[in-house]
Amino acid sequence: MSEKVKKRTLILDIANHLEVSIATVSLVLNGKAKQSRISDAVAQRVLAYVNEVGYKPNHIAKSLRTGKTHVIGLVVEDISNPFFATVAWMIERQAFERGYRIIYCSTDNNPEKARELLTMFHERHVDGYIIVPSEGIEEEVTNILREHTPTVLFDRFLPNLPTNYVIVDGAQGTYQATLHLLAQGFSRVAFVTTDSVQTQMEARLDGYTKALAEQAMAPKVRRLAVTKDTEKVIADIQEFLQANPEIDALIFSTNYLSIYGLEAIARLKMRIPDDVAVISYDDHDLFRLYTPAITVIAQPIESIARNVIDILLDELKHPHAKDTSLPQQILLQTELVVRQSSIRKKAKTTVVRKKTLHS
Amino acid sequence: MSEKVKKRTLILDIANHLEVSIATVSLVLNGKAKQSRISDAVAQRVLAYVNEVGYKPNHIAKSLRTGKTHVIGLVVEDISNPFFATVAWMIERQAFERGYRIIYCSTDNNPEKARELLTMFHERHVDGYIIVPSEGIEEEVTNILREHTPTVLFDRFLPNLPTNYVIVDGAQGTYQATLHLLAQGFSRVAFVTTDSVQTQMEARLDGYTKALAEQAMAPKVRRLAVTKDTEKVIADIQEFLQANPEIDALIFSTNYLSIYGLEAIARLKMRIPDDVAVISYDDHDLFRLYTPAITVIAQPIESIARNVIDILLDELKHPHAKDTSLPQQILLQTELVVRQSSIRKKAKTTVVRKKTLHS
DNA sequence: ACAATCCACTAAAACCATTTAGGAAGCCTG
DNA sequence: CAGGCTTCCTAAATGGTTTTAGTGGATTGT
After folding, report:
1. Which nucleotide is nearest to A23 (CA to C1')?
2. Closest CA to A357 of A235, A269, A293
3. Residue B106: HSE in the Cβ half-sphere, 13 Å Cα cutoff
4. Do B125 and A89 make contact, defined as CB atoms within 8 angstroms?
5. What percent of chain A has pLDDT over 90?
6. DSSP A11
7. Is residue A212 a contact partner of residue A219, using CB atoms and an 8 Å limit?
8. Pair B240, B354 in one domain
9. Which residues of chain B have a pLDDT value below 50?
10. Between B118 and which of A279, B140, B256, B345 could a Cys-Cys bridge form, CB atoms 3.0 to 4.6 Å apart?
11. pLDDT tens-digit profile of B28-44?
12. Which nucleotides of chain D does any protein CB come within 7 A of?
């Protein structure tokens, strides 16, 4: 009956016990003892007792009063993609240490869902946003900017919006990869990408075409519709390879396209790199372990995470007056990690044997 | 100067505009119009206007008042592990549809961190917990149970605590896998696992030893210290294989151990399954695509997620009186997905060739 | 015709903290 | 000794909602 309900300790309990006011306790707890001229003696007493009973202010009440939630909303394309998962994880780590929590969701590149998530974050009063923008969410992002909520985009950006962002120089990456393939003696290098027109994808394509253009070679590009239907994508790649037998090297513009590509190549019983060389944009566990190991254009994941979180936390700490400060826009470099899949075996001989194989 | 600050609409604004009380608006919005005998006419007016101006109640104020945050805390071992990532993602999806948000963090199997996360979730007033318990957090979980916050464990459980949980019959899985290897003619089957004594790991080991015991065969087990140092783990496996050349088949107790194992096997220039057959507990993209494809004991990921979220949401909806209801404890079955890595090629002949290779 | 019941709402407390304006007490100063 | 300064704290407003207890007037019952 007289169930003794162990109530959470409140700031009022602290104040009552110490026979001071609520305000005093709160001020001490928020480090404003000095500026509010609370005597050291009282401050010490408060701290000691708070510590003793392990009182923690109610976060929700605090948020309601201050308008700060200490939560950052993170919107990525697909959290199960190792690239995003790793960046997210690093961001979470950093943020955690500085007292911020991350709440993350995937858009699956669906603008509808992206919009939903953004409004949900807004409703939840997140203090800041980290966004991998899918197409068609300019309006929502504009709204966020208008409210001056700190925001950083990464992986890609929205060309018409003056936002902070951290991106990777994909053009340079694919340019370098293409030259590498040509230097290895592959002469028919094709590029497989998605039908997305997002900035990062266009850049990757540009690097490839630029490299070929410099050699006065014609590009061979296949744009695939991104779809949930794995089999469809694999079949498309198979079809592309069969329709263009002259291709002797492939660059895939994302890690998951590469994985489908490897499957397609395996099904066609083609061999890497003898029948076709392969380079993937963006690394993956699989590529290190695959036989042969797959050459990749690696993105500086750690650096991306660090830059994103630094910019965001900086803005959270120093709320910049409206438009006085320009957005920070950072471009990071890729690294070509050469593995067996793009190395021509034993020079000329191999070429001969390869021709034999084909006949 | 007279910067027009667009204030968020409040329930008070709605009430003023419609010339009704705040209470009326709130009751209508919370579907309590009928039971509070608000006339349909008024209810309609409220709804219409709320819709028109797109008013959304302030979540934080709501939480403060009701004590409900509609947030579920999800603690996994490692969110970058595809198994956990996939389960998390499915749970998130389901929860989202039913109005709950997930906030997740990884413990990296570090009890210290697990405790930190749990108290953080507690401070944030999550409505429910989903936990992959690492060792040594019985006390924290007990605290949670005492407060009657709905909680579900998965992947493993805490034997002494009467909690809900959803686990997989790992013993059955490894038992079946071992028999499969024996049936294929492999006679020296070893088992590589971690030094963890968590329930799920012990079960997997038990299945293996039981299968061998039934054949009156001696088990060969290697327990590896789980460490961040990838190279160390790979080296350990190499060493194990070299020290025990008679081994002709390996079962790894987790997907990441298998990945290290594949690397070790590759470095020793051993061939799968000719020199050693391989089965992994838990599937991974890599295993489908690896050459040869790796046989796995697959966990019913979708079913795990569904059961977890169903149990949790059910408890959230019907707050069970203290201890009237027994915890729900669910055991799901694995599926052996046979791929090339555990299939003996061309019967006897292969054995002979293998011996030659070894000499 | 007077009490009891309904009806359709509303006033105000509660949730738990932060923060500002100001107040009491003691000391100094001229 | 009145007025001004400090020093150290506190009362009360504030944030935005939910929910309980009630209210005033109309209707019904006897």
Report:
1. D10
2. A269
3. 18
4. no
5. 77
6. H
7. yes
8. yes
9. 1-4, 348-359
10. B140
11. 999 999 989 899 999 99
12. 7-12, 14-21
